[in-house]
Amino acid sequence: MFPIIGVLIVFGSIIGGYLMEKGNVHVLFQPAEFVILGGAALGALVITCTPKALIKILKNLSKLFGSGPGKKEYVDLLSLMYLLFAKARKDGLLGVEADIEAPEKSPIFKKYPQIMKNHHAVEFICDNFRIYILGVKPFEFEEMMDRELEAHHEESNMPSAVIGKVADSLPGFGIVAAVLGVVITMGKMSESPDVIGHSIAAALVGTFLGILLCYGFLGPIGSNLEYRAKDEAKYYEAIKVAILAFSKELPPQLAVESARKVLFSDSKPTFKELETAVRKKAA
Questions:
Q1: Residue 170 and residue 173: Cα distance in Å, rounded?
Q2: Interatomic CA distance for residues 125 and 133, integer angstroms
Q3: Chain Cα centroid distance, residue 244
Q4: What is the tens place of the pLDDT at every residue in 240-252?
Q5: How many Å separate Cα 168 from the centre of its chain?
Q6: What are the residue ranges spanned by the domains of the chain?
Q7: Between the CA of residue 64 and those of 1, 50, 51, 61, 144, what are the distances in Å?
Q8: pLDDT tens string 124-153
């Protein structure tokens, strides 16, 4: 919802200021300029991306209207981790083997349906528990998880990077549209001053739209996706810190507390909130 509000503010402010100066909105409506800019930007995107990357970008656009992981999501995540750690501490590492091999059948994972919908997070938890059960040393374990997270973050940041590059190309495409408009205008030099003036105005709209779409629309979309990728990265970092702390033989409560410490303040549950949630689920 917020991105839509932002777009309305950008366009409303610009058009509103233009009208305050007695501007003619009809002059700004130049379908040919939209075709040139939109088509060129789309073509640049297709040239830049592989088919898989293009599909990933389209899927990521839906994240613009999401809120990302918040306090409730982190309470659920850390509660899940605590229950796994507590069971492993009580029954031994092999005691959680059934849970991580078939999380969809696990009584622990079933308590958190929202987490189960995040297949990548569930896979990350289960895979690293399997590695821990094999007996890897903590410093080697940390290095392995860091490599996996680095690859994940690089993949997550790809859509925002590509959209940012396409956004940077829009002012250039606006100049192309303006030049084409000037070329057309030069062919109308025998016409009346009104016709020539309208043609020049139409040509300049191309430059205006290129800059506006770059800095007021596509560029902010790329930045939005980048911030959301950072929020997602923090979610995985919390999982990593919790499992790593437990692998260093910290008690379950301290292991999840270590993960809680790395969260951003606006989504970090308090110690009491996490403790209450854990006790409720463990009951």
A1: 5
A2: 12
A3: 26
A4: 999 999 998 899 9
A5: 19
A6: 2-282
A7: 8, 22, 21, 6, 31
A8: 999 998 888 888 888 888 899 999 999 988
